[in-house]
Structures are given as C-alpha cells and as structure tokens.
Amino acid sequence: MALSDTSTQPAPAPEASPLPDACPLRHLGCRARLTDPTWRLAYSRTTAEGEAEYCRCSCGSLVVLRNGDLCGFIDSECGS
Question: Is 52 exposed, middle or buried (0-12, 13-18, 19+ CB in 10 A)?
Fold first, then answer.
C-alpha cells in the first residue's frame, strides 16, 4: 500500500496593501503627521497671473496653487 503525498504547498502570501501616501507638505514643515491626507478646494479664482486655487488639508493646513504649482503653505499649527 502506497502512502499518499501529504505534503502541502505553502499558502500564497496575502496581497500587500499599499502604504498610505505621506503628506506631500512634510518637506515644507507640515507637522500634522497624517499618512493619508485628504484635500478640499476652498476657493479658486482667475488672476492676471493665471488660475489660483486655495486648498485645505484634513489637518487644517492651507496651500495656494498658481497654475497647479505650489506657491504658498500655511501650517495648521502656525500661531497656535
């Protein structure tokens, strides 16, 4: 009587979930330490220099974009 093969294949590794994005404002001094920030357009307008957008982060920081380029940052902890 032959013994059946009882060896088992290793279970496949679970799919690794992607790491959350770090705050893109860390290099500017954002201290909120959010790993997955969300953004909300607070205001936009057209100026003589192009489109200006004011965006609020879920940490409370404010950024100003001119034609899609970052041109201003106010940390949520400034003045506190």
Answer: middle
Beta strands 69-74 and 62-66: pairing type?
Answer: antiparallel
List strand residue ranges (DSSP E) for the chain, in order.
Answer: 39-47, 50-57, 62-66, 69-74
| DSSP designation for 24 | T
Q: Which residues are CB-neighbours of 39 under 8 A, at least 6 positions away?
A: 55, 56, 57, 58
For the CA atoms of 22, 36, 40, 68, the dihedral, rounded to the nearest 10 degrees, stands at 30
pTM for this model (two decimals) = 0.60
List, for residues 29-48, the tens digit of each pLDDT value. Answer: 777 777 778 889 999 999 99
